[in-house]
Amino acid sequence: MATRGRKPTIAPAAEPEVLDAAAEQHTAQALAAVRQDATAQALAVSQHDAAVRAVAAQVGYQLPADCTDPDLIQRDISANMRRSVEACLEVGRGLTVLKQACQHGQFIARLEVLGLDRYVAARFIQAATKFSNVPMSAHLTQAIGTQSKLLEMLVLDDEQIEDLALTGQTGELSLDDVATMSVKELRAKLRDARAENKAQAELLAEKNADLDEMRAKSKLINPPPPDERRAELLQEVSTHVNTALGMLNGAVTQSFAVLADHDAIAGQDSLQIMGGYVAQLQQAILQLREMFDLPDIVGDGTPEWMRATADDADLAAAEA
What we know:
Elements: H1 16-59, H2 70-80, H3 85-101, H4 107-114, H5 118-131, H6 138-144, H7 147-152, H8 158-167, E1 169-170, E2 173-174, H9 175-180, H10 183-221, H11 226-266, H12 271-291, H13 304-319
Antiparallel strand pairs: 1-2
Helix pairs in contact: 1-3, 2-3, 3-5
C-alpha cells in the first residue's frame, strides 16, 4: 500500500500591522539619525563661521558679501593683489581670514592658486597684523607709497608705527623721510631708528634694574612682613608660569602647526619629533613635581586646603 507524502508546512504570514509598525520604527530611527547628523554638522559650520568672522573683525577685513566662503575670500584677495599700500594691507587681511577659513592643509594649496609664495604671504599677514590697530590716514598711506616700503617698515615696533601714524614722527624718522627716500635709503634709516629704539629700551631697562637693586637693598634693611613677602613671591611665580604657558600655547603651538602644514604638503611626517619635544616638556613637569613633592592637582586646580577653607567660609556664611 503506497504511503502518501506529507504536505509541506507553510508558516503563517506575518500580520500586516506588525510589518507596518516595524517599518515605521526603522524609518523613524533613520530620520532621527539623519537629524542628529545634520544638527552636528550645522553646529560645526556655525562654530567655524564664528571663528572666521572673529578673525576678520580682529584684522579689520570686510568679508566679501558678508560671507565666510573661502572661494569668495580667495577671489577678493586676487582682486586686491596690486602694489598700492591699502591693497597690500587688504591682501594681508584677506590672507589672515582665508587661513582661518581653510581646513587643515588647504591654505598652502590656495596660495598656489593665487600665485603667492608662502613666505611672501606670511609677510603680507605680518603687515596686516602690525597695522591693524593703527589709524591708516591718507597721509600715512601716501608716504609709504609702495609694497616694498611697507614691508621694510615691519622692522619698526608697534609704538613707533603708532607715533608715525599719529604725529608723523618717531625718533629721527618722519613721514617726509619715508615718502622721499628710496627703498635702500629707507632700509638704512629704519635700521638706525630700530637701533635707537633698542638703545633707549636698554637704557630704560638699566634704570629699572638700578631701581630694582635699590628696592632689594631697602628690603634687606627693612624686610617686609611675612605675608607681604609671600604675596610678592606668589606673584613672581605666577608671572613665570604664565610666561611659560604663553610660550607653550603661543609660539610652540604655532610652530607645531606650521611644521604640520609643511608635512601635509611635502608628504613628510614629523610626529615622532614633535612627540619627543612634548615628552621633554612632560619630563620637566614631572621633575618639578618630584623636586618639590607637589600634589597631583586635578579638576579645577584648587588645592585641598584651599577647598576646605572655602567650604568652611561658605558654611559659616550659611549659618550666619
